[in-house]
Fold:
Amino acid sequence: MTLDQENIRKRVEAMKGVPTLPGIFEKITRLIDSSETAAADIANIISSDQALSAKVLRLVNSAFYGFPGRISNVTHALIILGFDVVKGIVLSTSVFDVMLAEGLFGLWEHSLGCAVTAGVIARKIEHPDPEEVSVAGLLHDLGKVIIKIELPDESSRIEETVEKKQISIYEAEGDILGFSHATVGEWLSKKWNLPHTLSDPIAYHHTPGRARLAPKQTAVVHLANVLIRARGFGVGGDNLVPQIDPKAWETLHISNALLEEIINEMDDKLEDAEDLLCDNGMGNGIKV
Structure:
């Protein structure tokens, strides 16, 4: 029996333990929405939390963002990457904290791998904002975290269904809940006022043909998710490798030769991602 989707949506939106940084994230959102905000204003808020600013700088200086060791402060990060990208990174660091608390180390590894791969694809197809596409990859499975926290009994049933029926977690969520982690991610994207360049990939990374506002970014994250699952990097919730949606191929126009280049560079970048996972600044030395 599936659940009442509207009631669950309201519960999710009312959660007190959502992976945000109370106060700080809301302040950042308000400032970004203001036309009078300067980079220094947002930087001051982030820098007021030493642990947060250290995590943000560690992440933006990781090799897969393309700026290894070059960004020394939060203001610089905002100028180089833009407000929305840094907002997404702030959210990502707090999502990681929740994953760590819930023991979802493999999901964090999968998410980071998807971010790495999405960035590689975006650069190969010469997308104008590969950093933002990477953030979309980092956040694409946000809904899985929320289901784990808010619906623990159903989450256990989903895991059992995946194992028993040997189906994808996406299908099992539909069987048990009547909706998927992508839908939950879409709810929170709207609540947090994320830009469509992040919300569309979160909502439609399994169904890229449905993306209307950011079809290319969504297709990139979709392909990245498939490739990182095929690579076996992290844990996405099941052991299956989904097929690449024809709409994604149609949107991206990636040749076999370019795909081979993407896979080779992805493998190189994943070594850097593994270093990040082991780093004390992000994972307290925990290897996932």
